[in-house]
């Protein structure tokens, strides 16, 4: 048992020291608000991107919007299954002093069923945050039948 704990400690130490990205995983019910869990909070740091992946569900992003577009820029990849977010400052668009906003993503599956995913985005204006300050670099949405897992280090 001690060997297993030591092995996990080594994995986490190596992940942190190698600048690994940490990805969070939540099930689709949490993302749509039907799972009875609080909304997932995305911390966006200046200079650090954040990706939301729908690859596990097979859904495609039909549309997305943020309540405060003066602070968040987003784009989808070619597959339409990954949304990349960046923290920006566009005060001429809609100046805002808020420290957070909401993100909604409209998705569709292969049968044409639509889902609306909800997230809160918290603005972290520190430039070049330390690796240990960034909690997650991405989020993977899992099918409703799969339970969420602990964050996984990606290399």
Topology:
Layout: H1 2-17, E1 21-27, H2 28-32, E2 40-46, E3 50-53, E4 60-66, E5 72-76, E6 82-87, E7 100-108, E8 114-127, E9 138-142, E10 152-154
Parallel strand pairs: 1-9, 2-8, 3-9
Antiparallel strand pairs: 1-10, 3-6, 4-7, 5-6, 7-8
Mean of pLDDT: 79
By CATH, the architecture is named Sandwich
Name the structural class.
Answer: mainly beta
What is the CATH domain class?
Answer: Mainly Beta
Poorly predicted parts: 1-19, 150-155
**CATH overall fold name:** Immunoglobulin-like
- The coarse silhouette is globular
Keywords: Signal
Signal peptide: 1-20
Question: Would you write up a description of this structure?
Answer:
The chain is mostly beta strands and 155 residues long. The protein has one domain: Sandwich (Immunoglobulin-like). Helix content is 14%, strand content 43%. The protein contains two helices and ten strands. It has a six-stranded mixed sheet with strand order 5-6-3-9-1-10. Strands 2-8-7-4 form a four-stranded mixed sheet. Strand 5 (72-76) and strand 6 (82-87) form a beta hairpin. The longest helix has 16 residues, at 2-17. The protein is globular, with a radius of gyration of 17 Å. Keywords: Signal. Residues 1-20 form the signal peptide.
Quick tags:
43% strand; globular; disordered C terminus; Immunoglobulin-like; six-stranded mixed β-sheet; mainly beta; 2 helices; four-stranded mixed β-sheet; 155 residues; signal
Short recap of the structure:
The protein has 155 residues and is mainly beta.
């Amino acid at each position: 048992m001690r060997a297993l704990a030591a092995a996990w400690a080594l994995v986490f130490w190596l992940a942190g020291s190698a600048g690994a990205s940490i990805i969070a995983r939540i099930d689709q019910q949490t993302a749509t608000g039907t799972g009875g869990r609080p909304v997932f909070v995305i911390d966006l740091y200046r200079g650090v991107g954040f990706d939301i992946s729908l690859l596990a569900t097979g859904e495609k992003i039909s549309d997305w919007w943020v309540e405060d577009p003066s602070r968040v820029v987003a784009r989808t990849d070619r597959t339409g299954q990954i949304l990349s977010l960046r923290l920006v400052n566009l005060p001429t668009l809609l100046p805002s002093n808020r420290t957070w906003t909401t993100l909604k993503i409209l998705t569709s599956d292969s049968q044409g069923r639509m889902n609306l995913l909800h997230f809160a985005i918290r603005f972290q204006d520190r430039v070049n945050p330390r690796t240990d300050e960034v909690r997650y670099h991405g989020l993977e949405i899992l099918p409703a039948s799969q339970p969420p897992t602990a964050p996984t280090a990606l290399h």
